[in-house]
Amino acid sequence: MFNLGLETDRLPLSMQYSDVLSILPSGRPFLKMHGLGNDFVVVDGREQAFRPRPEEIRWICDRHVGVGGDQLLVIEPSAAGADAWMRIYNVDGAEAQTCLNATRCVAWLLLNESGGDRLVLETLGGMIEAARTHDHAVALRLPAPKWDCWSIPLALETDTLALDLASGPLQQPTAVNVGNPHLVFFVASRDEIDVARWAPAIQNDPMLPEGANVGVAEMASPDVIRLVVWERPGILTRACGSGACAAVLAARRRGLTQHHRVMVDMPGGQLHVEVHDDESLTLTGTATVAFSGRLPVDLTTA
Questions:
Q1: Mean pLDDT in the chain?
Q2: Residues 101, 240: contact at Cβ < 8 Å?
Q3: Of 291, 287, 250, which is closest to residue 99 (Cα–Cα)?
Q4: What is the pLDDT of residues 74-99, one digit of tens each?
């Protein structure tokens, strides 16, 4: 299915790298981008639709045989008045509701394309306003979160401040939906938690019929949170924009901070979260282009 059209076992030994490039067929262009190491394959589907099958998405995101990335992003026209629709595919081929690192990357691309300073992106998780702050940084304005149990969703009606869920050192998380569902566990030291060991049991708990992202947060100070996130569908990422927002909101709800501006430090770098009086948010961080390329011709047909 993903044959590039090369009979590699018949290539002459004398063939140079440039010769190989010259016989590669043209395919769908893509950009590889990242927000603090949370990386994405970005495809423009506005003029020519691009709807890959789940097995093709898994191949694209595979770091050994494909391009490699935490998610595949497809930019499409918006039918709801936004500047564009951003479709988000996880590494398992399923569509995701929201990814704020991805949103910053796509917003940065479109802002540079238009030369404007502001735009609105439509996602499954809702409309997101984006504004350029400097050359490689974008601020996202996000609506107020949802705290009720049905918005997570949870299987049983219960308060979301401190859920009766536990896995090893992870105990009693706060649940919140910031366009996608998050559970935030507060611990004494982020780096002492083996997140890959303990988070999957939480993510697959029957209390979470649709799963959730699992954040492990340490209050380094009242205005600094150290965070790592185990994301759906079961990967440890270097940064998570929605996870950063969830951690700040959860810390405020639990009385761990009263600051309106909090810096969230993750393995990939830092994001800045501002909470407004109505609990709407502004998330600011960088967006970076890593490289460009073309997908195999087999993947260029909608």
A1: 91
A2: yes
A3: 287
A4: 999 999 999 999 999 999 999 999 99
Identify the structural domains of the chain with CATH numbers, from first to last: 8-141+288-299 (3.10.310.10), 149-279 (3.10.310.10)
245 noted as active-site residue: no
Sequence-distant (6+) residues with CB within 8 A of 192 are none
pLDDT in tens, 242-279: 999 999 999 999 999 999 999 999 999 999 999 999 99
CA dihedral for 50, 53, 59, 61, sign (positive or negative) = positive
CA 33 remoteness from chain centre: 12
User: What are the tokens at 88?
Assistant: 């988000």
Q: Which two tokens stand for residue 159?
A: 């308060």
Secondary structure (H, E, C), the chain: CCCCCCCHHHCCCCCCHHHHHHHCCCCCEEEEEEECCEEEEEEECCCCCCCCCHHHHHHHHCCCCCCCCCEEEEEECCCCCCCEEEEEEECCCCEECCCHHHHHHHHHHHHHHHCCCEEEEEECCEEEEEEEEECCEEEEEECCCECCHHHCCCCCCCCCCCCCCEECCEECCEEEECCCEEEEEECCCHHHCCHHHHHHHHHCCCCCCCCCEEEEEEEEECCEEEEEEEECCCEEECCCHHHHHHHHHHHHHCCCCCCCEEEEEECCEEEEEEECCCCCEEEEEECEEEEEEECCHHHCCC
Q: Using CA atoms, how far apart are residues 246 and 241, in angstroms rounded to an integer? A: 9
Catalytic residue among 61, 105, 149, 240: 240
**β-strand partners of 216:** 185, 228
Integer Cα distance of 215 and 230 in angstroms: 6
